[in-house]
Specification:
single chain; mainly alpha; Serine Threonine Protein Phosphatase 5, Tetratricopeptide repeat; about 70% helix; Endocytosis_PI4K-reg_protein; TPR repeat
């Protein structure tokens, strides 16, 4: 008798264990053994059989609307056994559980009213929050979840707003209770899993895997915040998300946590307008845990993260970025790397989850210029983004933002292969080649490929394709000194700009480039017409305003140009480009004293805008960025002083590489220490110091000019611009040998530096080397035939050689060119694509 009773206990223990682990077929086998040993325990056997049959069916046929008819036929036997078990004293646990499972069964059949009836019979709403076993936790959690789902599916019994609100409150309460109990249940499952792992030492031990949440509980956890949002109660939804996410993570909730963190981040991003942000607070339960106080905790509340060093966001921006970075880490962790066909669905699902996070992260971090965070995320994304155009494109844009242009160029080539019909990647790589990489010929090829794609598959970018082809040819035209090639490329540029204008007559950028090309060819009236059209289309376009100011100086309308510059500075007071033009214009039209005031303001402005950046320590990434920025003067705000300093000139970029190489050599020999912070910021200051040095020379203050040059030398030790300015100082002091050396050094770095060639020719003349002077100035005329100073100096040299007729022609040419020569070269306007 005792032996039989002991066997019964052992079988019941095995049944409980297999119920907790979800081994329902094993439960049915054990129930048959239980019937044989204990025929009188028929009610328990009926319950276990009905439960096992129900769960086996639902594992294969999830409880969704599409499966209702299958459930009505497939769950007949399970329903019969559960009804037999329920037909007893309701105070018994077996009968209570049978009623709860009947509610689940009816829900699977689509019988929502009947399901609510069984929950009412079980008095689900009044259950006491007591310690329950693992399986009972699951049953109760699913019961609350199903009750909420059934209440949602049934139409409201009353049209009263009060009744509807009460019903909605009841639904949310069901889902919240279900979520809490579900988390408790899953935490218990993880505990059991860990115990099995630690306790199983033999190979024959049963393998136990963590329990999955199931569609019912997962739906319930997600529904509550959505209902809050539908009702407009955003703060309640945020509080709910925080409460769920603060619970200890379990194996089964990993995927769900990714979704919830992303959703909360999206709500904070989109839904905080008009709402006072409330920072999350440590829950009292957590504080209690730290003090060892656990007696007051409800057994239906999950354990939460606690500790002394928990980070608590202080504002919505911190919380947004934190949530999205957590989401990104989880998405990268869960991504499927295998390319095998059997993993295709899972691979697509995890990739879509990751992409959604990356899109939100992009919106958030770019807003606060934290692109480096985004770059790190995309670096991780590359391992599972094979063949995914969207991520590769985002990665390329991120690299461009970080000024990693060479790497971005390579990534864009991959994007172009992955998207054989897309036009935009071709245009992006074209811009990169023109603006940063000095690969003008390649850029023109990419723009032509973009046009071919646009013609084959129109995407509304035909105007931009023609425009980029025109820009490329305009750059080549400015770079070449062969007259025939220069004319040919100029014609192609005009033709392309005209086609762009025909494709989109309202594009201000096309009109600007037409004006710019006309100005480069000294067709001032035509240029003026187009720049005014450009400004009519977009009045705030800075390059068009810049061009208009220079065009006014070609017509000697200095007062009007100054008024225009002042008007621009009223709208854009921090624009150093415009201030630089203003200082030069004041120097040549008003006087050096006025220019000094403007330059003083530029230095003050530089300090306010950039000094904080220079105090930051240079990390490895910044160092890489500096070394990858090839041109010492190839930055928009510093393309100010001369034709060669514009980013459209290939020789300038080559000179900049030489300057940087020489600076690195100087640094390696400990003779020069680079300034801290981004170098492009310091280069802005160099330009201002050099302009100041020139102004001091005009004002007959050579000492102050020398000090200004020294300030520039402290920033960049080897630059053709600085060497040229040093040459001006020596020339002012009549130290022609020293001036010659400076100009020669400048030309050694940058053979096409027109100003150095002009002044070197004049210095040769002063030193009596008239042949060298003539050759040097003729070289300068080949590079820029529209510079009046070159022709004037050449006329002086030819006159000293006794070639009076040729000298007269040169002087006449100088006068002719000077009548339409701007105060600064047109090419000093930075290349623009906006």
């Amino acid at each position: 008798m005792t032996s039989k009773k002991g066997q019964t206990y052992r079988i019941e223990a095995k049944i409980d264990k297999n119920r907790d682990e979800g081994h329902w077929k094993r439960v049915l086998d054990l129930v048959d053994q239980l019937k044989t040993l204990c025929p009188n325990n028929e009610r328990l056997s009926n319950f276990l059989t009905g439960e096992a049959r129900l769960e086996i069916f639902l594992e294969q046929t999830p409880p969704v609307d599409a499966n209702n008819m299958k459930a009505k036929t497939g769950l007949i036997e399970a329903k019969r056994f559960l009804l037999l078990a329920a037909d007893e004293d309701k105070q018994l646990q077996t009968a209570l559980d049978a009623h709860l499972l009947l509610g689940k069964l009816c829900y699977a059949m689509g019988m929502y009213s009947q399901s609510l009836f069984y929950y009412q019979e079980a008095e689900l709403h009044s259950l006491t929050e007591t310690q329950l076993g693992s399986r009972n936790l699951c049953i109760v959690a699913e019961s609350f979840a199903i009750k909420g789902l059934c209440l949602e599916k049934l139409p409201p019994t009353s049209k009263s707003k009060y009744k509807i609100a009460e019903m909605q409150s009841q639904i949310i309460k069901c889902f919240e209770v279900a979520a809490n109990i579900a988390l408790v249940y899953l935490q218990e499952q993880d505990k059991i899993f860990i115990q099995h792992q630690n306790g199983s030492s033999s190979p024959q031990s049963t393998i136990h895997t963590p329990k999955h949440m199931g569609p019912i509980l997962e739906t319930a956890i997600q529904r509550a915040p959505l209902i809050y949002l539908q009702a407009g109660n955003i703060q309640a939804a945020i509080d709910y998300y925080r409460e769920i996410l603060s619970a200890l993570e379990t194996t089964a909730t990993k995927g769900l946590r990714l979704l919830l963190t992303r959703q909360l981040g999206e709500i904070l991003l989109r839904g905080m307008k008009g709402i006072n942000y409330k920072a999350p607070e440590l829950l009292e339960a957590n504080i209690g845990n730290q003090k060892g106080i656990t007696a007051m905790e409800s057994p239906w509340k999950p354990k939460r993260y606690n500790g002394m060093n928990i980070f608590v966001p202080k504002n919505e921006y911190e919380e947004m970025i934190l949530l999205l970075l957590i989401s990104e880490a989880m998405a990268a962790r869960d991504a499927v790397l295998s390319q095998s066909p059997e993993f295709k669905e899972e691979r697509v699902r995890t990739f879509e989850n990751a992409t959604a996070v990356y899109d939100l992260l992009t919106v958030v971090v770019v807003r606060w210029s934290q692109v480096e965070l985004l770059h790190e995320s995309f670096e991780r994304a590359m391992k599972f983004s094979r063949g995914e155009v969207h991520v590769w494109m985002q990665y390329a844009l991120c690299l461009i933002s970080l000024e990693k242009y060479v790497h971005a160029h390579s990534v864009l080539q991959v994007v172009i292969k992955l998207a054989p019909q897309k036009v935009m990647p071709c245009l992006l790589i074209t811009r990169l080649c023109f603006e940063h990489l000095n690969k003008v010929a390649e850029g023109i090829e990419w723009s032509q490929k973009a046009l071919q794609r646009e013609i084959a598959n129109p995407q509304g970018l035909q105007s931009r394709c023609h425009l980029y082809i025109g820009i490329g040819n305009s750059i080549v035209c400015a770079n070449t000194i062969v007259k025939q090639d220069k004319v040919q490329h100029s014609l192609v540029a005009f033709e392309s700009f005209s086609k762009a204008q025909q494709s989109d007559p309202n594009d201000h950028l096309t009109e600007y480039y037409l004006a710019r090309e006309h100005a480069m060819n000294r067709q001032i009236s035509e240029s003026m017409t187009h720049v005014k059209v450009a400004l009519n289309l977009r009045a705030e376009h800075i390059p068009s305003l810049h061009l208009l100011a220079l065009l006014l100086t070609t017509q000697k309308q200095y007062t009007e140009a100054l008024h225009l510059l002042d008007s621009i500075l009223e709208e854009y007071p921090n624009n150093l480009n415009i201030l630089y033009v203003k200082a030069n214009l004041q120097l040549h039209s008003v006087g050096g004293e006025e220019a000094l005031v403007t330059i003083k303001h530029m230095l003050f402005l530089w300090k306010n805008l950039y000094e904080d950046q220079t105090k930051a320590d240079i990390n490895e990434q910044q160092s890489e960025k500096r070394s990858e920025t090839r041109s010492v003067f190839q930055i928009h705000a510093s393309e100010l002083s001369d034709k060669d300093s514009s980013s459209v000139h290939a020789h300038s970029l080559a000179a900049s590489r030489i300057e940087q190489a020489l600076s690195e050599v100087a640094s390696s020999r400990n003779s020069f220490v680079p300034k801290p912070g981004p170098q492009r910021v310091w280069l802005l200051q160099v330009q201002v110091w050099l302009l100041l040095a020139e102004v001091f020379l005009v004002l007959n203050h050579p000492k102050e000019s020398a000090l200004s040059i020294q300030e520039a030398l402290n920033i960049v030790p080897l630059s053709h611009h600085i060497l040229y300015t040093q040459g001006l100082l020596h020339e002012y002091k009549l130290e022609y040998e020293e001036a010659k050396q400076c100009y020669q050094n400048a030309i050694a770095i940058h053979p096409s530096h027109v100003k150095s060639l002009q002044n070197l020719g004049l210095v040769y003349h002063y030193l009596g080397s008239q042949g060298l002077a003539e050759k040097t100035l003729r070289d300068a005329a080949k590079i820029d035939p529209m510079s009046y100073k070159t022709w004037y100096n050449l006329g002086i040299v030819l006159e000293s050689l006794g070639e009076y007729e040729a000298a007269s022609d040169c002087m006449e040419t100088a006068l002719e060119v000077e009548t339409c020569y701007p105060i600064l070269p047109i090419s000093s306007i930075p290349l623009t694509f906006e």
